[in-house]
């Protein structure tokens, strides 16, 4: 029973008495002497609780009042006020312990020996719960198993009832098995149907993928068609295409870098620097050859291969440089022994000592804006701005010499000197050229003979021998023109933009196209 002592008030029906400080014995005596009437003692509860009351005669409980005063520790309180008013309010949390009810009664009476026990200045210590008993699970299982077996033996039913129960259980199991079997059969049928549908979907997907792959523009879809290979690549078959790629080096081509990473700080370490490949090595070479042979614009190539135009440009530039430096490692000018071993009969009977057949060719370019460049590249022969190159072939028709490109205004004699063709020739060699190459005196110092058609005499007519020599030389010199025509079949050379001329890429392109023609069948047999 808890009593609130912020201010202690006793309410009685007698007269009022105040004391500032009271000892326990004084209060006890005062209570005994002063109050003869009954004291109403109330329990104070929170607003949500119900007030209960108890009445007791103060004359009969003087010892009880002393116990109250001792329990409330009256010496510690400076003021105990006795005000005549309503009954005292006492907080009760243990009503069942402090009050007793008569049988059938409603109001409770305070027990004689009931005294306060809980105060604001006391600390209530909660009693710790007793620890739970723990047992070994294995032992418990064994005991439970044994107990269950004993109970099953003890509770065994008669044999007749057991048979009936077993029969009913068996019938229930059979019914359940039948229903489960029906469900299983239904599910198996659905599984088979789904497997069949899945198989059909896979076949449809495979067919669509094959159709899509056939519609893509790549080397795999045209390698079986020699006509398409010749049209797009300039090679007669896919085997020649593979030979060229193997010569260039597949592994080296996989390491090609399409971007400049020199200025990139801490570039990631990868097997190949730059962007990841959007195309395979074969398709990259196929893309380059389509640009070379057919002359497709970069935007067109980008749409055909499904990549962006900037990537097409980087692939073309990178592969052009790669092929150029790979072919430049070779000395394509053959020795005299090799030339003799492969010399056709037409040269053996007429001009057996011929080593190389030369001729100049010109490529149209975009008109430069610089007047000096216009003057340098203007060709009176083509009546336009061109670039000029010197090409030499062996008697069998293979390209064995390709010079750099010069302005179209350069003469045949000057381009022969600048191209350093004379460094390739030896004493006793013979050069066949057109009558425009007035280089006899230039090559005579090295012991090299020049076979050119005879010039027309003052009479304006050829002699019989001059006519015969002109026809013989023309019949053999035509092969160099055929070789140049093979080079110009790569339509990227039809018209050269001025931007390509400025960075020197046009020299590499022309050289690469000339080298690709050497993978074709010989011109002269």
TrEMBL record:
Keywords: Coiled coil, Metal-binding. InterPro entries: HARBI1_dom, Transposase_HTH_dom. Residues 129-149 are annotated as: Disordered. Residues 278-328 form the Transposase Helix-turn-helix domain. Residues 177-225 form a coiled coil. Residues 358-518 form the DDE Tnp4 domain. One of its GO terms (molecular function) is metal ion binding. The keyword S-adenosyl-L-methionine does not apply. Its cofactor is a divalent metal cation. The keyword Coiled coil applies. This is DDE Tnp4 domain-containing protein. It comes from Stylophora pistillata.
């Amino acid at each position: 029973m808890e009593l609130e002592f912020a201010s202690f008030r006793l309410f009685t029906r007698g007269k009022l008495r105040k004391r500032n400080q009271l000892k326990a014995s004084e209060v006890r005596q005062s209570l005994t002497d002063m109050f003869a009437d009954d004291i109403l003692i109330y329990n104070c509860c929170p607003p949500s609780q119900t007030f209960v009351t108890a009445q007791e005669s103060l004359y009969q409980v003087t010892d009880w009042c002393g116990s109250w005063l001792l329990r409330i520790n009256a010496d510690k309180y400076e003021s105990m006020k006795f005000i005549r008013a309503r009954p005292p309010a006492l907080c009760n949390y243990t009503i069942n312990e402090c009050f007793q009810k008569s049988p059938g009664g409603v109001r409770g009476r305070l027990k004689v020996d009931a005294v306060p026990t809980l105060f604001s200045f006391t600390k209530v210590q909660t009693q710790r719960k007793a620890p739970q008993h723990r047992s070994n699970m294995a032992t418990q299982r064994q005991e439970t198993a044994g107990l269950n077996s004993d109970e099953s033996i003890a509770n065994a039913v008669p044999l007749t009832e057991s048979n009936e129960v077993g029969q009913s259980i068996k019938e229930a199991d059979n019914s359940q098995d039948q229903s489960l079997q029906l469900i299983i059969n239904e599910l198996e049928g659905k599984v088979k149907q789904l497997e069949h549908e899945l198989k059909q979907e896979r076949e449809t997907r495979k067919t669509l993928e094959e159709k899509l792959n056939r519609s893509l523009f790549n080397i795999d879809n045209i390698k079986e068609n020699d006509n398409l290979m010749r049209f797009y690549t300039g090679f007669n078959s896919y085997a020649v295409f593979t030979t060229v790629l193997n010569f260039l080096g597949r592994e080296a081509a996989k390491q090609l870098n399409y971007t400049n990473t020199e200025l990139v700080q801490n570039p990631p370490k990868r097997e190949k620097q730059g962007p990841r490949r959007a195309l395979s090595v074969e398709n990259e070479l196929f893309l380059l050859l389509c640009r070379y042979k057919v002359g497709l614009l970069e935007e067109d190539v980008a749409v055909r291969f499904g990549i962006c135009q900037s990537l097409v440009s980087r692939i073309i530039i990178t592969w052009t440089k790669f092929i150029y430096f790979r072919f430049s490692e070779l000395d394509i000018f053959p020795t005299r022994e090799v030339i003799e071993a492969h010399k056709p009969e037409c040269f053996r009977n007429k001009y057996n000592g011929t080593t190389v057949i030369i001729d100049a060719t010109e490529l149209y370019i975009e008109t430069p804006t610089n007047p000096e460049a216009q003057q340098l590249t203007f060709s009176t022969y083509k009546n336009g701005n061109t670039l000029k190159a010197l090409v030499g072939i062996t008697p069998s028709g293979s390209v064995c010499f390709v010079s750099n490109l010069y302005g179209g205004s350069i003469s045949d004699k000057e381009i022969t000197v600048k191209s350093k063709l004379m460094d390739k020739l030896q004493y006793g060699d013979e050069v066949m050229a057109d009558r425009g190459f007035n280089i006899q005196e230039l090559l005579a110092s090295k012991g090299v003979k020049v076979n050119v058609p005879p010039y027309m005499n003052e009479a304006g007519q050829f002699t019989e021998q001059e006519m015969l020599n002109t026809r013989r030389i023309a019949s053999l010199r035509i092969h160099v023109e055929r070789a140049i025509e093979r080079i110009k079949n790569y339509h990227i050379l039809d018209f050269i933009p001025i931007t390509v001329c400025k960075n020197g890429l046009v020299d590499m392109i022309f050289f690469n196209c000339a080298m690709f023609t050497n993978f074709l069948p010989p011109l002269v047999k």
